[in-house]
Amino acid sequence: ETDSEDMNSEKYVTTLDEAALNHCREFLNEKEESRDEAVALIRKWLTDQNHLNARTDSLNLVRFLRGGKFNFERTIGKIESFYKLRQNTPEWYGNRDPMLPELQDLLNLGVFLPIPKRDAEGRVVVLIRAAVHKPKIHKQNDVFKLGNMTIEYEVENDESISVYGVIAIIDLNGVTLGHARQMTPSIIKKAVHSWQDCYPLRIKGLHFINAPTHVNVVLSIFRQFMTTKLKSR
């Protein structure tokens, strides 16, 4: 068998504990008896979507199904949005070597800090220190590139993130006008679109802290592009 045939025939094997599986049943419409069939339907749909160049392994498809609460249309919409975002945003998804000097700089500054311990509801908490980089040196697109790499690493290494979701705490302490100018409406729109519509996980909370008054304009632009549900979180 070829690698692609192996990938198309392999079965999903969970790494979740019973509490997480119960959460999937209760809140994500996931049923063990029909999960494989749902994966097969998505995989069959993907055979006609060669333009997406999508992964078809079972775990990845189960993540997207959870992101769409096992609704076929919502799931394929999220998959399509995710892979189109990757294709159309080379400034975020091209040349993702973490050893690049510009990414090493941001890593050493600690812009994105996933907290090792999950919160009381099992969610991963990510502290985003939005003002530790220097706008004259670091590109905002590199900041978002590293942020996406960070969350993808977390998703790949902990299946429960696709179940319980993510809390983002965005610390704006020290934000300058230079930082604010980097956040153009087009970048903000793209960022919110990626959070809401693309990734196979849920943003369960966005908390902005230590926000000076001069970034209120930027925050209001963020809110313009958010769904009512995300605004409420």
What share of the residues does DSSP label as strand, in percent?
5-15%
Reported by name, the CATH topology of the largest domain is Phosphatidylinositol Transfer Protein Sec14p
Oligomeric status: single chain
**By CATH's scheme, which homologous superfamily of the largest domain applies?**
CRAL-TRIO lipid binding domain
Secondary-structure element string: HHHHHHHEEHHEHHEHH
Protein name: CRAL-TRIO domain-containing protein
Organism: Laodelphax striatellus (Small brown planthopper)
Pfam families: CRAL_TRIO
Domain CRAL-TRIO: 100-233
Structure summarized in a few sentences:
One of its GO terms (molecular function) is phosphatidylinositol bisphosphate binding. By secondary structure, the chain is an alpha/beta fold.
What does this structure look like?
With 233 residues, this protein is of the alpha/beta class. The protein has 2 domains: 18-88; 98-232, 3-Layer(aba) Sandwich (Phosphatidylinositol Transfer Protein Sec14p). 55% of the residues lie in helices and 9% in strands. The protein is built from 13 helices and 4 strands. The protein has helices at 3-9, 18-27, 32-46, 58-67, 72-88, 90-93, 101-109, 140-157, 161-164, 177-182, 185-198, 216-225, 228-232, and strands spanning 112-114, 124-129, 166-171, 203-209. The chain has a 4-stranded mixed beta sheet, with helices on one face. Helix 3 (32-46) packs across helix 4 (58-67), helix 4 crosses helix 5 and helix 11 (185-198) packs across helix 12. The longest helix has 18 residues, at 140-157. The termini are far apart.
